[in-house]
Write a structure and sequence with these properties.
alpha/beta, 5-stranded parallel beta sheet, 40% helix, 5 strands
Length: 148
């Protein structure tokens, strides 16, 4: 990290939060701790329940939520190239405007999974219920609150 001067980068220099978190762990943990650390759920002990582990590369993803977490995640998902974003949904899409759209329009675009990018478990459960009423199976509904 020091040889590559990655220790000199600020958090704002990272386009993807996931890479920033990884860098910060690598700076604070010894290599063995990073690979084998159970408490931080990194390396070999990374949580397999993570929404990232449930999405295959190339999956068509609907991102639900244009709040703080959604605004951070949207460019990260676009930038990492692992997934194809088919829509960005929020109940306030009319006030927010493009590229955020309504749920019905987004569903018509097609998707493999819906990724809910909200922090509140109660709000996530309401959205899950709404999606179930539209016939969307639970296994296609993921939440960013799951470990990543």
């Amino acid at each position: 990290m020091r040889e590559l001067e990655l220790d000199r980068l600020s958090d704002g220099d990272f386009r993807q939060q996931r890479l920033r978190r990884i860098r910060n762990c690598l700076l604070t943990l010894a290599p063995g701790e990073y690979v084998f650390d159970k408490t931080n759920r990194k390396g070999l002990f990374a949580d397999t329940a993570s929404w990232r582990a449930k999405l295959e590369k190339g999956s068509r993803v609907l991102l639900y939520g244009a709040g703080k977490r959604g605004r951070t995640l949207f460019p990260e998902l676009l930038g990492d190239g692992e997934y194809r974003i088919t829509g960005w949904v929020d109940k306030n899409h009319k006030e927010i405007g493009y590229p955020v759209i309504g749920l019905d329009e987004a569903i018509q675009n097609g998707f493999d999974a819906i990724l809910i990018s909200l922090e509140s478990p109660a709000a996530v459960e309401k959205i899950r219920c709404e999606l179930r009423k539209k016939g969307i199976e639970d296994e296609r509904i993921l939440w960013t609150g799951e470990a990543d």
